[in-house]
Design brief:
Blueprint: H1 4-10, H2 16-31, E1 35-40, H3 57-65, E2 72-78, H4 84-97, E3 100-104, E4 108-109, H5 111-118, E5 122-125, E6 130-131, E7 137-143, E8 149-155, H6 156-173, H7 182-187, H8 190-215, H9 221-235, H10 238-241, H11 250-256, E9 260-262, H12 267-286, E10 290-296, E11 300-305, E12 309-314, E13 317-320
Parallel strand pairs: 1-2, 2-3, 3-5, 4-6, 5-9
Antiparallel strand pairs: 1-10, 7-8, 10-11, 11-12, 12-13
Helix pairs in contact: 2-12, 3-4, 4-5, 6-8, 8-9
Length: 321
């Protein structure tokens, strides 16, 4: 099984972005399904980076799917964060064009990416991979001392929990007890708290509908409602997670009732997926300005970063378009 070190050594003669396209073509031949890869670098420090699903990704998906034939798709997905509104845009587009989607998660999906995974018919994991909570991240604008503003994405549940704690403290201790919560209350207005509540409820409603329409479309209303209730209890209960990034592993996800395929049962497929994930990690390591990779088995590649790139594999060479 490939390691990061082995790829650094073995891929010296081929840029990782080119090797990703070759590997995606080989994977599509192996599975007999077209493949779309979407991986972002949550640790990116690139200026103005959006290393999570965002509205602009709709254009990437639209361009990528133009060459996809048939009604089945394999989606390799690894990303964290994002809003439920963005997830809804991407899912509506994907499901409007593809009737069966199999999702491979090599490491971790949370937030909007977790919503995307739960909108698929089947999710494939191994013991190194996990699904995160469907925790919405909401945009919050900060006013900086130099007079400028910056936007950061913050866990909606974390904001709501802080507000609830402040309200409980006010009830029990009066205004004197709010000293510790003053920065929170000064930073967010009532509009932000309402935005957070709506985002949490929207995420739950989207999962409820998508599981019913796609993963459990063949079950009776009663059967699917029981499973969906368990899934929502597991994936959208902040008090259980204690962290918006806390993972739900293969067995826990399967015990909820989700249709999970254990990749350990297919060692060759498992290794192909893991190799592609590590190639994206190598790309992020070599090109620090890149924070998102989207690629297809048809030979299209998109890099989002300080300098975005659209390229294709043509006549055995990577050509920038």
């Amino acid at each position: 099984m490939p390691t990061f070190r082995s790829l650094v050594v073995s891929e010296e003669q081929a840029a990782p972005e080119e090797q990703i396209l070759w590997d995606l073509q080989d994977l599509a031949e192996f599975t007999e399904r077209p493949t779309l890869l979407y991986v972002s670098n949550a640790r990116s420090t690139a200026p103005d980076a959006t290393p999570f699903p965002c509205p602009e990704d709709l254009f990437l998906f639209s361009d990528a799917l133009r060459q996809v034939e048939g009604d089945r798709l394999d989606l390799i997905l690894n990303s964290q964060g994002g809003t439920p509104e963005v997830a809804e845009q991407l899912v509506v587009f994907l499901r409007g064009n593809i009737s069966y989607i199999r999702c491979f998660v090599p490491h971790l999906v949370t937030g909007a990416a977790a919503l995307l995974a739960l909108a698929c018919n089947e999710i494939c994991l191994d013991d190194r991979a996990a699904l995160g909570p469907i925790e919405p991240y909401v945009p919050v604008t900060r006013h900086l001392p130099n007079g400028t503003t910056s936007t950061e994405y913050v866990s909606a549940s974390a904001i709501l929990q802080g507000f609830d704690h402040a309200r409980e403290t006010l009830r029990e201790e009066g205004e004197a007890g709010l000293t510790a919560y003053a920065p929170l209350l000064e930073r967010y207005d009532l509009h932000t708290f309402e935005l957070c509540r709506n985002a949490v409820e929207l995420a739950r409603e989207l999962v409820r509908q998508w599981l019913k329409d796609y993963m459990f479309h063949d079950l009776s209303a009663r059967e699917s409602s029981v499973i969906i209730r368990r899934v929502l209890e597991k994936f959208s209960k902040p008090s259980e997670f204690l962290s918006p990034q806390r993972p739900i592993g293969l067995e826990a996800a399967r015990n909820c009732g989700l249709r999970i395929t254990d990749l350990r049962a297919n060692s060759e497929l498992r290794e192909r997926i893991w190799r592609l994930y590590w190639l994206t990690s190598l790309l992020f390591e070599q090109q620090r300005g890149v924070y998102k990779v989207c690629a297809t088995s048809q030979g299209l590649l998109y890099l989002r970063g300080e300098k975005s790139v659209r390229a294709t594999l043509s006549e055995g060479e990577l050509r920038v378009l």
